[in-house]
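note to self — DONT lose this again. spent like an hour looking for the file last time. sequence + predicted structure for the chain T wanted, 393 res
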Amino acid sequence: MQYRIDPQSGNQLSVLGFGLMRLPRGITGIDQEQTTGLLKQAVQAGVNYFDTAYVYAGSEQAFGKALQATGLRDSLYLATKLPHQMVRSAADLDRIFEEQLKRLQTERIDYYLIHNLPDLASWQRLVGLGIEEWISKKKASGQISQIGFSFHGKQNDFLELLDAYAWQFTQIQYNYLDVNYQAGMTGLKAAQQKGLMVVIMEPLRGGKLATGLPAAASAVLKNADPNASLASWAFNWIWDQAEPTVVLSGMNSAEQLAENLATADQASVGLLSPEQHKALDQVIQIIQKSYRIPCTSCSYCMPCPHGVNIPDCFNAYNTRYSQGLVSGYTQYFSGIRPHQPERYSGPSKCQACGACERKCPQNLAIIDSLLEVRKHMEAAWTRPLIAVIGKII
């Protein structure tokens, strides 16, 4: 495992961090046995940064149980997040934080973030509720070591937030498709210049850079290096740069973890050759021509009050254009089930209530995009096809 230094604390952090939003699940929820096993495997291999959040359903509780079962709390750095939208008073700060400590079965949080802080106005609202004084007290007591914020907004808002408080770290979405999206490379460099540790989330853009590339894009990378996985290209593009400290990956199987560990063992600044950068430039051009909706499948928009499976709608729609009509409709039938009215979760159920758009960290025009999905995936010519496939199934 390779390590980089947090410039604020001096902590040596593994370049590969474990994102706990997509833990392995069984019929009744998160699979506790698998979660505990992944924790042990990751720590034994040198991973020491683990990231969760209050709103990741069941994640804090499952990880707390794993920490208790393994006794590995002091072998790692723990990060979790405050859901600022749920804070209505100073009392809420203590209530939520104490609940997180209880869930995680710990007495301290090493890296605490304001979750998805979108703009300066949102931070100023928290300041009005006394969050700066609250942070000072928690740090003085040792319950919080480092304070930061995660971000999914516009670049100018990110730059304003950097100057709004004495942050110690930040977490941004960043990958070879998002160089100029959200905080982007400009935000990454600005944070680094202010001396902040930068944690990277969505390095695979919700898995799409590992399993959802257009065939032509995959071919370019395979030709450039037949032995490299698609995921390793995405990770190496980030580790090739000096500014990121930790790159999070939401791993939910031993196989995913093992693959990412092997890639992380070789991480270094400048590891990609000019020819490899050219190959990635080709891939970016191909992807930009094929993906129609830049959804990362984070599921923050879910559940939809009217029963629309928004991520699956968008994934199938993008697959149609990136991998072909058959693949797109195969995915649409398996996820959206247009042939089963009682289980249908497609765009026709959308009531344009806007609940999804208010929660989307990507600020996507979800309602308009669902109309596009309906127009193309449920066009008049598809209805006989849907009926026939329904009868066959």
